[in-house]
Specification:
Organism: Mycobacterium spongiae
Order of helices and strands: HHEHHHHHHEHHHHHHHHH
Radius of gyration: 21 Å
InterPro entries: Poly_Biosynth_Transport
Number of helices: 17
Protein name: Polysaccharide biosynthesis protein
Helix content: over 70%
Strand order of the largest sheet: 1-2
Number of strands: 2
Subcellular location: Cell membrane
Oligomer: single chain
GO cellular component, one term: plasma membrane
Strand content: under 5%
Largest sheet: 2 strands, antiparallel
Length: 436
């Protein structure tokens, strides 16, 4: 990898993007993803072992709340990756634009606004969400989100400039800080409060990387073509879509509860099954959003064709997962979690197929972001989430409507994305403008 040029230049030099996304970059991010996942599960394991069930439920709600808001903030990663990656192509087609934007500075303002919004609205909702350590939870959620906005944007800048080793290092730094605080919490018997801190502690990882890494500091100073308003408009669509994605992926148990009179014990089994069957595909795919967007920006001549290779890979892995889930999934569930978690191989197989559907939606969404089809991208994810919510209202058995919602809802979003990508391919040279 070549070094990024000038400290305050726009992406400027064509070497900034460093050429096509290589297999090595996928390997680096893949390794970082594995370490990040291990650390995340370690925090949950430590909390479950250290806290009573009632305390763990409080921790779990906060963990989920932080996951939802940071999931939405991941839209900044997507938009920043696209803007940074596409800058050399934009400047090659036309003289460098006079208006330039510093993404990290904009992210700081967005994070500050989000933190104020959460803290200011907390009296309206925090009492129903946080039953213990209420105001500490609000404060940590607000400050953690502000830090994560900078974290996600810095990830996007590193992805856009092919700094995959640093991209992975930032991911791992976040995860290691979390698990370190969790271990310390157990060691000093800090209890619930310590695990709340552990949840958000990684939000300072971006600052640590800026201090210790000259390459990261160089990437952080880059500027992108266009005004701040243009960047915010694109980021707004990406954040909307990422928020819908977070609801559909992390917040599905909430959707299930809102559309059911009573979940009961069976609902708990289904929620666990949904979580376990989707993680092997969606955790690494989410972590590799930077790789995917950079790949589709580079393949701007034919993004529909560029979808075929990753889609085939996802489909192949998914097919193997469906078979494995149907054959050995029920046994694994009983052995790992106890005899009370009884379910059929058919349910686990269908839920794995549904995870493939969401993975494909994630893939087409990355291609839409790369093509600057912001409206189509957000509409696809929002449409998928709304469709899944409506399908959960069908008068069917709980297991059946869960499968139908998770399998068919994403198809709506996939259709929106593919339609917009096809239209964009036919209407070149408008590929560098926002579409939708």
């Amino acid at each position: 990898m070549t070094e990024v040029g000038g400290s305050a230049s726009p992406i400027g030099a064509t070497g900034a993007s460093g050429g096509p996304v290589a297999r090595g970059s996928v390997a680096r991010v893949g390794a970082a993803t594995v370490l990040t996942a291990i650390c995340g599960y370690a925090v949950i394991y430590l909390a479950a072992r250290d806290l009573a069930p009632s305390g763990f439920s409080i921790f779990g709600v906060f963990w989920g709340a932080f996951g939802l808001v940071t999931g939405a903030a991941n839209g900044l990663l997507q938009e920043t990756t696209r803007e940074v990656r596409a800058a050399p192509y934009v400047d090659a087609l036309s003289p460098p634009a006079r208006s330039r934007t510093r993404p990290l500075r904009v992210a700081g303002l967005i994070g500050l606004a989000a933190a104020i919004g959460i803290a200011g609205s907390a009296p309206l909702w925090s009492g129903r969400v946080f039953v213990e350590a209420r105001w500490l939870s609000v404060g940590l959620l607000s400050s953690g989100l502000a830090g994560f906005c900078l974290h996600a944007t810095l990830l996007g800048m590193l992805a856009g400039t092919n700094r995959w080793a640093h991209y992975g290092a930032l991911m791992v730094t976040d995860a290691v800080i979390r698990v370190s605080v969790a271990v310390a919490t157990v060691a000093i018997s800090w209890g619930l409060v310590g695990f709340l801190w552990a949840t958000v502690a990684g939000a300072v990882a971006w600052l640590i990387m800026l201090v210790v890494s000259p390459t990261t500091r160089t990437a952080a100073r880059l500027m992108t073509p266009g005004s701040t308003a243009t960047f915010l408009r694109g980021a707004g669509h990406s954040i909307t879509a990422a928020g819908a994605s977070a609801i559909l992926v992390m917040g599905f148990p909430v959707l299930l509860k809102l559309t059911s009179d009573e979940l009961g014990a069976r609902g708990g089994v289904i929620i666990l099954a949904v979580t376990l069957t989707r993680a092997p595909l969606l955790v690494p795919l989410t972590a590799m959003q930077g790789n995917l967007i950079a790949h589709f920006v580079d393949e701007r001549a034919d993004r529909i064709r560029a979808l075929s290779a990753p889609a085939t890979l996802i489909g192949g892995i998914g097919a193997g997962g469906v078979f494995a889930a149907a054959m050995v999934g029920p046994w694994v569930l009983r052995v790992a979690f106890g005899e009370q978690y009884q379910t059929s191989g058919a349910l686990l197989g269908w839920l794995t197929a549904a995870a493939v559907s969401i993975a494909m939606l994630t893939l087409t969404g990355a291609a839409a972001v790369a093509a600057a089809l912001h409206r189509a991208y957000s509409l696809g994810w929002v449409g998928a989430t709304v469709a899944s919510g409506l399908l959960l209202l069908l008068p069917l058995h709980l297991e059946t409507r869960t499968i139908v919602a998770l399998l068919c809802g994403p198809l709506v979003g996939i259709g929106v994305h593919l339609l917009a990508l096809g239209r964009s391919e036919r209407s070149r040279p408008s590929q560098h403008t926002e579409g939708g």
